[in-house]
Amino acid sequence: MTATAGRKLAASREHQLDGLVGPTHNYAGLSFGNVASTRHAGDMSRPRDAVKEGLAKMAAVAGLGVPQLVLPPQARPRLDVLRALGFDGDDARVLSRAAKEAPRALAAVYSASPMWAANAATVCPSADATDGKVHFSVANLGSTFHRSLEPADTDAALRRLFPGDAFVHHGPLPAGPLFADEGAANHTRLYPSGLGTAGLQIFVYGRGDEGTTPTRFPARQTRAASEAIARRHRLGSDRVLFLQQHPEVIDAGVFHNDVIAVGSDRALLWHERAFLEPDAVDTIRRRFEAIGGDLLSWRVDEAELCVEDAVATYLFNSQLLSTERGLVLIAPRDVEAHAASRAVVERLKTQGLGAALFLDVRQSMSNGGGPACLRLRVTLTDEEAQQVHPGVRFTDDLHARLDGWADNFYREELAPTDLADPQLVREAYEALDALTGLLDLGGDFYAFQRA
Ligand code: SUG
User: Fold this and answer.
1) What pLDDT score does 11 carry?
2) In Å, what is the CA distance from 280 to each residue of 55, 265, 284, 303, 373?
3) Of the CATH numbers 3.75.10.20, 3.30.2000.10, 1.10.1670.10, 3.20.10.10, which one belongs to the domain with range 15-76+111-440?
4) Contact 304, 201 (CB under 8 A)
């Protein structure tokens, strides 16, 4: 570690990049292994509430003094994908045929899934990389069809939001089961507080080349993918740790590690069944100590909160934020409403947690996306932060403008049958066209604007 890198991290801040919920947010049961997605398949969705819940969360985070950024939604529906699947003719014909012959494909091309920015990419701060750059690796998201449509546009968006040579943008890893990658949802970074040195990056995978794997639901992250990312990001071997997620919890609906553990700063909140290796957290502690860290371990036992209730309430999908008030937990309201889950938070408050805020992100939760799913953490030095596209900085003014934009363009309700309505396509594109003005992204951000 050079003195320069040490100075750089001392002035670093963790930015929260939240996926803005797109106008076609709907419930289609597209994610096998994500129990909320399956349970809510076919429900009526409320896109306007969804985007406003996300905006209110961004406001709460910004209100804590944490820098907040907005990731624009991707253009949906992807009629180009339906055409590639053989549906031809004008838009109305493509939609009506797909609705009859391939309703799941229709739902997939409409999904607002890019809102879950934790799956957009894995991001590593410059202090950890031997080349002193911030590295982004876009996730390939090949485990589900609807999410496999995201990487190319995610890559383009991240390049637009983080331009300049402080940032290295790696595209997605090669497609296919071997390098299945779901981004930062399986990645945690701990750093020794006050030292201004590099951190320890923990990559959690569901499937290795050998050994136990889940039997009921897919493991969406492989060890090979995590290793490739660590290599690309030029992380020293003393900076990385690879741990296997317990296959049994994947089979219980923990489709990403951030559904069963969350860490930030020097704190790690984890369920006793999160990891396969029984001594996983001892290893984390030891490795963290070796780089000058003192782990604050918050273990939750099965008797205190069972995995099923953890999945139902999403306690571990809270955001853990370093603020002037100490560590703050942004948890879903479902945690507050559940006695055992809430009791864990009360206990944490006696063990170093500064405060907890309970927020309503119901629309996202019903598709299996809690507060932490909606954000990607991007740690930047002050100098790097100056390079970020200024239009996506969340301010009170932008909040007000985006609220008004949602009132103008978002439907209150969306039923599965509405997806065949060509008017919805026009509405969605009009909304996004207007958004590029609000975020100062120019008139050529979306493919439909360039056509
Ligand atoms: O990939 N749900 C998302 C939820 C992602 C949550 N992210 C994190 N844990 N970080 C998924 O399963 C459901 C879409 C539908 O069924 O309509 C969906 O894609």
Assistant:
1) 77
2) 36, 18, 6, 20, 23
3) 3.75.10.20
4) no
Q: Which is the catalytic residue, given 25, 146, 233, 256?
A: 256
256-268 mean pLDDT: 97
**In what order do the strands lie in the sheet containing 187-190?**
187-190, 200-205, 240-244
Which conformational region is residue 267 in: left (phi greater than 0), alpha (psi within -120 to 50 degrees), or beta? beta
Instruction: Evaluate: CB of 424 within 6 angstroms of ligand 1.
Output: no
CB 150 less than 6 A from any atom of ligand 1? no
Domain ranges of the chain: 15-76+111-440
Identify the active-site residue in 53, 150, 182, 384: 182
Integer Cα distance of 152 and 140 in angstroms: 9
Burial class (CB in 10 A: 0-12, 13-18, 19+), 346: exposed
DSSP per-residue string spanning 21-46: PPTT-------TT-HHHHHTTTPPB-
pLDDT digits (tens, 9 = 90+) for 191-246: 997 545 789 999 999 999 988 999 999 999 999 999 999 999 999 999 999 999 99
Query: Is the C-beta atom of 259 inside 6 A of ligand 1?
Result: yes
Q: How far is CA 195 from CA 9, 116, 170, 297, 378, in A?
A: 9, 32, 29, 19, 19
> 182 an active-site residue?
yes
Token pair 């990403």 in the structure block, residue: 256
Q: Whose CA is nearest to atom 8 of ligand 1?
A: 373
Tell whether the torsion through CA atoms of 182, 226, 192 and 129 is positive or negative: negative
Strand, coil or helix: what is 319? strand
Collapsing DSSP states into helix, strand and coil, what is residue 286? helix
